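Blinded run. Sample ID left blank on purpose so nobody reads anything into the name before looking at the predicted structure. Input follows.
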Amino acid sequence: MAADSEAPPSASHASARRTSSDVSSLAPLPDHRNVNTPWWQEQWHRHQHITTPLRQRGLECDIEFGLSAYIVRVSLPDSSYLIIGPPQEPSSDRTQGNPEGWIVTREHPHDQASHEVLYDSAPSADPGVPERPEARHGGSIPPLIKAIDQRLTQLGVLASPVPPAGNALAPPATPTLHAPAVPGTASVYVYGDSLLALTDQLKGAESHADAALLLHQVLAPIDGLLDQLGEFFDAAGEKAKEAEQDDGADLGCDLAHAAAEVRSLVETLHVAEDRMRALTAPPRPHRPTASPAPVPRPPLAALPTGLRHTR
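Blinded prediction complete.
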């Protein structure tokens, strides 16, 4: 199979959303017969919010079935591999690709000593076992990608450098924000003003490609505005929990839930930027050119006066 598009053959509408330069920045699709089966294509679609950021880093990904749920297998240059999936036992009632949490392990077929858990945000099933710090992220993908980036960078096994903006598909240029301000005054809502300026730039974008560039600033899965807003709510939740009052713990939980909700938007809209870039403006209405003025016809010749009609 020719691995020259992001999506499987039956999903060519998705591959059409990328330019040739975009596709070249992704690791190739796996090359086996399951790629052409409906079950594999469905699971690939359900896990693209994981596979796409990793393929942007040059890492080849595949979908396999584990003990009770589908997993993402990521091949590494040192012959080891990552297994990314939900807790396998007991099986989750949630939809594939959207579990309560994720577990990432690194394994090597010939070196058992290299086995390690890189990330575990799954809720603990044993009351006696404390949860790992990343459990607060639940099923959110950006923290998972960050943890993989950090560990693979330490190991020196990333196939290609990590995209600087968290999304290798983004154009290299970035917009310059100019927050509106009333002359002679200083706004106390500098961050809201910056977002308002971004919104104004989006409204005035001259092309859908420019609009996609602005969407990238908000939806980038690692460094985008929504992901950083999730980090903000997480930090606020931890600060609330420092209080010795019951309401501090409740507020911390509410803020953590808000962080998860914000990050879920990143995952829901993970292809919105590419879809925006693929749009085209409607064609300009055709305006027919003015037709030349009609040439006046010569007047009809008068009938001779001497002719009379006879029966």
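Unblinding after everyone has recorded impressions. Strands lie at 60-65, 70-75, 81-85, 103-107, 116-120.
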